[in-house]
């Protein structure tokens, strides 16, 4: 039992506890344990409400204690799903070269509500999404085999799976193919 609870309930050696008071102590201890476990789980990285609830369920804490811990973490500003969604989407777009649609889907899988995930994805800059799609296309293009038309189709399918909109995919495929042609022309001139 945590010392805060010992002080709160004035639990001293030799003191007798009534049944109602024992129930209250056990309930408070359960709430406190849920909060401490959730706090420790947050220590590694930011998490969503749903991720913390799943974690506490795996630790076999009752749902009511878990919900109370979540509310306390929200009041303290340690759990904030809309802020988490925006940061996650921005970071993953840049580092993983992913588009809005895929990021929105990933956020929903992490327990972010559909509206919040959609809002976070909508806040991403369209120009940077196009730049990211072009970067992903340029990175993938040399590894795609086949005729140029077939390579373009494969690249487009790859970018669509990455969650980029079709207009952005068309531009990225065109840019990657164009760069490849320019590189080949430059090599021919060097010979």
Automatic annotation (TrEMBL):
Residues 34-73 form the RecX first three-helical domain. It is found in: Cytoplasm. The keyword Cytoplasm applies. Residues 128-173 form the RecX third three-helical domain. Residues 80-120 form the RecX second three-helical domain. Keywords: Cytoplasm. Coiled coil: none annotated. InterPro entries: RecX_HTH_1st, RecX_HTH_2nd, RecX_HTH_3rd, Regulatory_RecX, WH-like_DNA-bd_sf. Belongs to the RecX family. Modulates RecA activity. This is Regulatory protein RecX. It comes from Paenibacillus glycinis.
């Amino acid at each position: 039992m945590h010392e805060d609870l010992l002080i709160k309930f004035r639990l001293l050696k030799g003191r007798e506890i009534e049944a109602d008071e024992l129930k209250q102590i056990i309930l408070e201890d359960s709430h406190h344990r849920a909060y401490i476990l959730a706090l420790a789980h947050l220590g590694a990285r930011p998490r969503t409400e749903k991720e913390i609830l799943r974690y506490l369920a795996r630790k076999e804490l009752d749902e009511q204690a878990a919900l109370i811990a979540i509310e306390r973490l929200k009041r303290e500003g340690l759990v904030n799903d809309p802020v988490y969604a925006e940061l996650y989407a921005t970071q993953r777009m840049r580092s993983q070269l992913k588009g809005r649609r895929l990021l929105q889907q990933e956020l929903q899988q992490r327990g972010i509500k559909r509206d919040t995930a959609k809002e976070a994805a909508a806040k991403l800059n369209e120009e940077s999404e196009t730049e990211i799609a072009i970067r992903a296309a340029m990175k993938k293009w040399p590894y795609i085999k086949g005729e140029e038309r077939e390579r373009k189709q494969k690249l487009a399918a790859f970018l669509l799976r990455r969650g980029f909109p079709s207009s952005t995919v068309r531009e990225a495929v065109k840019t990657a193919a164009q760069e490849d042609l320019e590189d080949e022309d430059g090599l021919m001139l060097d010979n």
